């Protein structure tokens, strides 16, 4: 798929009703191995362990581990009151012990494509065990169950599904990964996302460099693929 400049269009769709449920009213969700719950300020030290693993931060736009606990606290604050109504990012914990091993969810109500975006990171000791996939599937279920409202938003037209007009669209969740982040691409595909775009862009970790990025979309409430 060739890279091209985005063209923005205004479309009618649905989105989770705003304000989003506040952290204090979000019920924890459990899966086979995970407890997915709202983030709290006390998560900062566990999040710091995650965000100081160089392997975890290598693909993050920041491109380096957090310098100190204060930096991690600043990264946590967009997901705590009073910002919780705008985001839907969760603590990913082991069900058995409650230990926080990752963070993930909607950190941006309008991503670079205009749609809500999902992101996630898992502590390296837990990679390769299906944890991220288990989380993304559960999170999508949580997201799709939120009350809906009609919305009119500006989106990148390249996200539109084939055979849909440019006036309305089924609601999407989007994500993007670096071309060499095969693990993340695999997670998205296993969770039902469809790859729809590859493009060149400035590397957020070093804007002097160009990187290839891969865009993914998920039709809320309906799987494109298994
Ligand atoms: C990406 C990340 C979340 C994956 O977490 P995880 O719990 O290991 O993911 P899962 O085990 O659910 O799935 C990973 C899949 O990728 C595959 N995979 C891993 N490394 C791979 C590689 N180098 N090449 C091809 N496939 C790879 C695994 O085999 C697995 O697929 P499978 O189940 O079909 O075998 C984790 O590596 C991470 O936190 N990375 C740093 C942060 C990050 O990159 N976040 C995403 C930003 S877009």
Question: How would you portray this structure in words?
Answer:
The protein is of the alpha+beta class and 226 residues long. It has one domain: Gcn5-related N-acetyltransferase (GNAT) (Aminopeptidase). Helix content is 19%, strand content 35%. The chain contains 5 helices and 10 strands; from the N terminus they run βββαααβββαββαββ. It has a 5-stranded antiparallel β-sheet, sandwiched between helices. It has a 3-stranded antiparallel β-sheet with strand order 8-10-9. The chain is globular. The protein starts with 7 loop residues before the first strand and ends in a 7-residue tail after the last strand. The mean pLDDT is 93. The structure holds coenzyme A.
Question: In summary, what is this structure?
Answer:
Residues 33-194 form the N-acetyltransferase domain. The chain is an alpha+beta fold and 226 residues long.
Ligand list: coenzyme A
- CATH top level is Alpha Beta
Give the count of helical stretches: 5
Q: Strands across the major sheet, in which order?
A: 2-3-4-5-6
Q: Helical residue percent?
A: 10-25%
* Computed CA radius of gyration, to the nearest angstrom: 17 Å
Q: What is the oligomer described by this structure?
A: single chain
Anisotropy-based shape: globular
Main sheet?
Answer: 5 strands, antiparallel
Mean pLDDT: 93
Number of strands: 10
InterPro entries: Acyl_CoA_acyltransferase, GNAT_dom, N-acetyltransferase
Region (Disordered): 52-72
Domain N-acetyltransferase: 33-194
GO molecular function: acyltransferase activity, transferring groups other than amino-acyl groups
